[in-house]
């Protein structure tokens, strides 16, 4: 009698790949170790029930930011950590985070705790409602109507906003607010350069998108020290504005025929 074929054991299916999150929170940080734990806890609480990920980009910190993030990642499944070998600036950290993010929508936050994560759900809900009818892609920009900063920082920021709005025509009262929400694909279509995060509304408009500002909460810095000074911002701001003006003039959006 011929041997019967041996039964082949069914392959054990591996774990199903995790579904991509609906929303990715990108947080660039440099030397913000004491602010990381409280901010991650606030983000997690604000987005409870929403499929999300928290992407921290450590931009070459010299304090114990890396150690804090590594320890926190062990107990926070939604937390992903990326690190630059050397500091490349806030814009580079945001670009790194957005490129690595898996969500269709991105929200950015400053890592100092002054932006309130509790504002994110309302901004996201507004953006989704605005996008239901199609049309141009939308960026929602946070507007710190009540600043919790020093008088010098408030005055210099107000002056810079007026000059920038006049020269670039971005119609955004507070481009310096770190809390912004936008489709990932929209951001990836923008030109990347140092300090680009300060000009995102103008770049989005250049790309044919829309920008809407919404009031958000702003809080005083409770821990750590700012990585920026007033004079260094003003010094690079003039050159950057001229550069963005050049970009605006050197691009024509193609219109497809129906």
Automatic annotation (TrEMBL):
Where are its TM segments located?
none
Q: Where is the Glycosyltransferase 2-like domain?
A: 24-187
Q: Which CDD domains match?
A: DPM1_like_bac (cd04187)
User: What UniProt keywords are attached to this protein's entry?
Assistant: Cell membrane, Glycosyltransferase, Lipopolysaccharide biosynthesis, Membrane, Transferase, Transmembrane, Transmembrane helix
| Gene3D superfamilies hit by this protein | Spore Coat Polysaccharide Biosynthesis Protein SpsA, Chain A
What the entry lists under InterPro entries is as follows: Glyco_trans_2-like (IPR001173), Glycosyltransferase_2 (IPR050256), Nucleotide-diphossugar_trans (IPR029044)
Q: Which domain of life is it from?
A: Bacteria
Any Pfam family the entry gives? Glycos_transf_2
Specify the protein name. Answer: Glycosyltransferase family 2 protein
Give the organism, scientific name. Answer: Teichococcus vastitatis
């Amino acid at each position: 009698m011929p041997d019967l074929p041996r039964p082949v054991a069914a392959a054990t299916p591996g774990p199903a790949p995790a579904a991509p999150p609906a929303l990715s929170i990108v947080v660039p940080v440099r030397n913000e170790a004491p602010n990381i734990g409280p901010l991650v806890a606030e983000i997690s609480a604000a987005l409870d029930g929403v499929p999300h990920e928290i992407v921290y980009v450590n931009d070459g910190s010299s304090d114990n930011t890396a150690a804090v993030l590594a320890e926190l990642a062990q107990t926070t499944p939604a937390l992903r950590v990326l690190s630059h070998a050397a500091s490349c600036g806030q814009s580079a950290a945001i670009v790194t985070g957005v490129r690595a993010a898996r969500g269709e929508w991105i929200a950015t936050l400053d890592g100092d705790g002054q932006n309130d994560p509790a504002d994110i759900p309302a901004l996201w809900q507004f953006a989704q409602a605005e996008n239901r009818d199609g049309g141009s892609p939308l960026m929602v920009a946070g507007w710190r109507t009540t600043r919790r900063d020093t008088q010098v920082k408030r005055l210099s920021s107000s002056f810079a906003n007026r000059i920038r709005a006049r020269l670039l025509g971005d119609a955004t009262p507070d481009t310096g607010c770190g809390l912004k929400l936008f489709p990932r694909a929209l951001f990836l279509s923008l030109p990347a350069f140092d300090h680009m995060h300060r000009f995102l509304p103008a770049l989005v408009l250049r790309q044919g998108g829309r920008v809407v500002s919404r009031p958000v909460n702003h809080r005083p810095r409770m821990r750590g020290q700012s990585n920026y000074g007033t004079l260094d911002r003003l010094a690079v701001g003039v050159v950057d504005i001229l550069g963005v003006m050049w970009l605006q003039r050197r691009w024509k959006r193609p219109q497809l025929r129906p």
